[in-house]
Amino acid sequence: RLKHKENGKVVFFVNHHGPLAVNSGGTCGGTATAVNLMKLMATHGQRGDALVLVGDFNANAASLTIQSMWSKLVHVFNGVSFGGVDNIFSNIPLSHVVRTENLGSGGSDHDAIA
Question: Which InterPro entries would you find in this protein's record (predicted)?
Fold first, then answer.
């Protein structure tokens, strides 16, 4: 959790690296993965926090993980690597997002996204 010194607003930033195989959700499945992420954020975040959830979800739009996240958070952006497994979600309305961008690989097998 990051707090702005002047205005007191808080950003709760979460990085996730999802289970393999891609779109499987791992042993418990995609819906359970999404539910567990939401529980984690509810436990460690606080009401009023601006939430930013990012990462290599090892899941794309065809997965139950991403589809479940859509029902709870705003899907801000996704990369193109491995079918779009890198994602950014937030609880902030999309109209408040200033810019999104694919920044390229920088030497990784995934593109950096912002």
Answer: Endo/exonu/phosph_ase_sf (IPR036691)
Say what the pTM is.
0.94
* Domain encompassing residue 20: 13-113
Domains: count for the chain: 1
| Residue 53 counted as domain residue | yes
CA separation (Å) from 52 to 16, 73, 108?
A: 11, 10, 22
Q: What confidence tens digit (pLDDT) does each residue in 3-62 have?
A: 999 999 999 999 999 999 999 999 999 999 999 999 999 999 999 999 999 999 999 999
For residue 22, give both structure tokens.
């891609």
Q: What is d(CA 28, CA 48) in angstroms, rounded to the nearest whole number?
A: 30
**Which residues lie below 8 Å from residue 71, measured CB to CB, with a gap of 6+?**
none
26: which 2 tokens?
Answer: 């791992």
